[in-house]
Each structure stands twice: as structure tokens, then as C-alpha cells.
Amino acid sequence: MVPQLLVSDFAGTAMKEEGGVLTAYRLALTAHDIPFTEEDLAARRGANKRAVFRELAARNRPSGEANDVADRALARFEEALREEYTTGEVREVDGAETAFRQLKAAGVKLALTSGFDRGLVDLLVRRLRWEGLFDFVLSGGDAPAGRPAPFFIYRTMMDLGVHDVRRVAVVGDTPLDLQAGMNARAGWVIGVLSGAHGLEALGATEHTHLLPSVASLPALFG
To answer: I need a surface site. Which of 21, 99, 164, 167 has the fewest CB within 10 A?
Structure first.
């Protein structure tokens, strides 16, 4: 059975992510004296970026000060990524656009979701020339909480008029993506090995399918 709706993560799933996010995290966290480990960053790939900075900043500051510092660090993070994605190369995961267009031709509604801010998401969509490809595009501020909460998925269903979560497929490259799909009770919860996490991490997270990349989606759905 073909899903009625596919909800795809962006960086690492639809677009190649070759270390720019981690570099920007390290730069912003170090500049604002926010403690972190590489394990912290790996575990939070795919999360709402503001929430990540506020959580980490609260480790060594009272809440009010932590929020102020986190917001400044977030601004530096977004500035660094915007510089990278404005001047550097932006590429799709091989075969992603072809796969998405095949699914769209088969009647599947397409949504793209990201923990990045709206300006950065719109920049990346333009650079990939994907305007009009997706029926709905969400940024980090478009839901009350980011992954692993299922709100990106539910918000997409509401806006696109999809009523049965069993007809929704969720695809992403991080454990948080898979956890969001399972929390939503989506019919398909698909991990892809094209991004931040490999077989060990995704295989240990509840899912329905694991694929090399989104390029394999049309074959999965027949």
C-alpha cells in the first residue's frame, strides 16, 4: 500500500549534510562557554536547535541567564550555517529528487521538516531548486516542540488534510526522527543511512524499515 503522506527530514535525509551542522554547533557553543561533548551533539541531531542550546546552557547557568546565552549562541549557530550554505555547495542526497517526484506522481503528498530556522530552510530549498516540490515545508519554529515529539507529523497531517496516521510514512537519518515517527504511530517509520547515524544507532531505535537512502523509497512502496 502506498502512503497518503510522506514526512521527510531535510539535512542528512533529503540533502547531503557533510559536517556543517556539527562545525556550527562547536563554534557557537565554544564561543559562548556552553559545555558539551561530542556525544551530546550526536544524540541531539534532528532536534529543535533552540531547545538544544537552552538545554546545554542550563548545565552551568541559572535559567534566566541560560536562556539569554542560549539565544545568542543560537544566533551565532544560524549565522555560521547561513554563511556555509550561502557560499558553499548544497547538494541533494543522490537520487532524492527523482524519488520524491516519483512518489508525488503516484499521488503521495510530500512534506519536508527541519530543526533549522525558517530563513535557513527557505534558503536551502531555493538553492536545491525544490520550490513547489513539497506540499508543505516546516521549520524548527513551526511546532510547539521538536523531535522526538510527533508534532511536526501531526501539524503536517492537519494542514494537508490527512486523517489516518497509518497512511503516513516518516523518514529520517537520526534516532530522534524515528522516535517521532513511532510516537505518532505512523504506518511507516523509515531510517536512512545517508546522514548523521549509521546502522548501529538506527537499528537500535524502533522502526519499521531501514534503507540506504530516500532513493530507495519508490521501490519500498512498490
So the answer is: 164
